[in-house]
Specification:
binds flavin-adenine dinucleotide; about 25% helix; 14 helices; alpha/beta
């Protein structure tokens, strides 16, 4: 018998680690403890099973304990909770329904994940309040919906799980109110990008309440309650999904002496080692380093958890492998829209005082003459000197996934906006454009960096000084009449050369069009005629999105 390796947690990080260790070391004695009944299930698929998009419950269970044992020769112990760790004596204490016992280890891997946050609000223990973490939670919510016990639902929290639950419960025919304490949903994106989602949620029948928190839950009968908000609004409902965030499930680690952060994450080095010999930790329970800023952060996502599980296994088996930090690449479907992010957003760039420039573009998902194309709204942040990509946010109907993965790869390998402009990407009309939206984001950023297209932003419009600045709309008069920035003069781009005399050369000209392209052409014309000129990044579309109210 080889090394005795204990693994705590049998899902993403834990199961990946166990399987990789076995592939590298046939002689290891591997025991995997899981406090729940299931291992290796598809957490990310749970909302879609509730929404009946995934029809068969069995599809959620990737591996049963028996199959895992048979394939990987791992002693899988479900319904077995590790309650404490003795790092000096190298044992863990395990509690089952029948008994409590100690198990010795040579090496220990912790992958306990996170648990939903449940604030101590009055009424939080009402039986109609549900959280979603695992298969039993899913069964409870699905049964509730299947039995038609709820006509209405309140989803508290507009993060990934809240948004996915809002969509899936809507899909099951429930009336949904989504309550979010902040002024936007999906906080990995900046507000002007998230506001596109706000409108989309509303269009899809979700009543969205932003900037208001839940104060209490008052039972109003057997299976109904009123959710009372800080604003005193009262929302009657039969089902409440509490999805205000997660915290590391690390209570059992606290007395072990293993170093942890204030927020309860386990501190690890690049090899996924804790500060105690032969104890590793991976997944949602660990603190990671942000790839762009170098700051310590908590990013609970499945990709990092799986990769870290593999890296811990490599190191345990003697292969020197280092985890190279987390860039937070994430994607979420909200009805017909997809939003995706990678790297840092503007809020964090400002908070962490990272210098940046930004650019908004709205290219087509594929050639606009081929049916079904839809704008891809892309925001990129890049270094003001080198042009190195710092972060990207994309929203659209199709093609978001492939573009975000290009940006994620570019960011991981330190590419600049100049490199984006040079990427040779696959093109045929149903899939893209000869100038792909990724290339366009690069072209535009390059023009900004090299001073060919000075820009201003939607947030600058409020402080326009009309004594020294002139705002110029170069769209058609029809577009101008449908909605324009206050006090703007409309000279359509094709008339601009002939009507230059209508502009005051003493003033700075702030040009805009619908998405930025005609504004760029106007910028070039005006600059070459001696005007001081700036183009509105992202055009009227970004301006409009940034001011949209729910
Ligand atoms: P987990 O997969 O949560 O596994 C931890 C396991 O450890 C749990 O089963 C738990 O019961 C067990 N455990 C905890 N403490 C003990 C103990 N003391 N003893 C024994 N066992 C213990 N991520 C994405 O990237 N994309 C998505 O689309 C996405 N969607 C999600 C949807 C939902 C509804 C949920 C809940 C999560 C989603 N995630 C998504 C997050 C993703 O599932 C996690 O990042 C990933 O599962 C983390 O892996 P982990 O091994 O750290 O923790």
């Amino acid at each position: 018998m080889g090394k005795k390796i204990l693994i705590v947690g049998g899902v993403a990080g834990g199961a990946s680690c166990a399987a990789r260790i076995r592939r590298l070391d046939e002689s290891a004695d591997i025991i995997m403890f899981e406090k729940g009944e299931y291992i290796s299930f598809a957490n990310c698929g749970l909302p879609y099973y509730i929404g009946d998009m995934i029809k068969d419950r069995e599809d959620l269970i990737i591996q049963t304990p028996q199959k895992f044992r048979d394939r990987f020769n791992v002693d899988v112990r479900t319904n077995s909770e590790v309650t404490s760790i003795d790092t000096a004596g190298k044992t863990v204490t395990v509690r089952t329904k029948e008994s409590t016992y100690k198990e010795r280890f040579d090496t220990l891997v912790l992958s306990p994940g996170t648990t939903p946050i449940r604030p101590p609000l009055p009424g939080i223990d009402s039986p109609i309040v549900f959280t979603l973490r695992n298969i039993p939670d899913t069964d409870r919510i699905r049964a509730y919906v299947d039995k038609k016990l709820a006509r209405r639902a309140v989803v508290i929290g507009g993060g990934f799980i809240g948004l996915e639950m809002a969509e899936n419960l809507r899909h099951r025919g429930l009336e949904i109110t989504l309550v979010e304490m902040l002024d936007q949903v999906f906080t990995p994106a900046d507000k002007e990008m998230a506001s596109i989602l706000h409108q989309h949620l509303t269009m899809n029948g979700v009543r969205l309440i932003l900037g208001d928190g839940v104060k209490e839950i008052i039972p109003t009968g057997d299976a109904c309650a009123e959710v009372v908000l800080n604003s005193s609004k009262r929302i009657p409902t039969e089902l409440i999904i509490l999805s205000i965030g997660v915290k590391p499930d690390t209570e059992f680690v606290k007395n072990s002496g293993i170093a942890m952060s204030d927020r309860g994450t386990i501190i690890v080095d690049g090899h996924m080692r804790t500060d105690k010999p032969d104890v590793y930790a991976v997944g949602d329970a660990v603190e990671v380093v942000d790839f762009v800023s170098g700051k310590k952060v908590h990013v609970p996502l499945a990709g990092p958890a799986n990769r870290q599980g593999r890296i811990a296994a490599d190191n345990i088996a003697g292969i020197d492998t280092v985890y190279k930090n987390t860039q937070g690449t994430a994607i979420c479907k909200i009805f017909d829209l997809t939003i995706a992010v990678t790297g840092i957003n503007e809020k964090n760039a400002k908070r962490w005082e990272i210098p940046f420039l930004k650019s908004y573009t709205h290219g087509s998902s594929h050639a606009s003459y081929y049916p079904g194309s839809f704008p891809l709204s892309i925001k990129i942040l890049f270094d003001p000197k080198s042009g190195k990509l710092l972060g990207t946010q994309i929203i659209g109907k199709e093609g978001v996934d492939k573009r975000i993965d290009i940006f994620a790869t570019a960011l991981r390998h330190g590419l600049t906006v100049y490199d984006l402009a040079e990427l040779e990407l696959a093109y045929a009309p149903p899939y893209g454009s000869a100038k792909d939206p990724v290339n366009i984001a690069g072209f535009v950023a390059q023009n900004i960096l090299e001073g060919r297209m000075p820009v201003f932003y939607a947030e600058d419009v409020a402080s326009i000084d009309h004594a020294t600045q002139q705002i110029l709309d170069v769209r058609s008069t029809v577009e101008h009449k449908q909605g324009a920035i206050d006090n703007s003069l409309c000279i359509p781009i094709d008339e601009l050369r002939a009507r230059l005399n209508e502009l005051n050369i003493e003033k700075e000209i702030l040009v805009y069009c619908q998405v930025g392209l005609r504004g760029y052409l106007a910028t070039r014309i005006l600059a070459q005629h001696g005007f001081h000129v700036k183009n509105l990044s992202g055009g009227y579309k970004t301006f409009f999105d940034s001011r949209r109210n729910v």
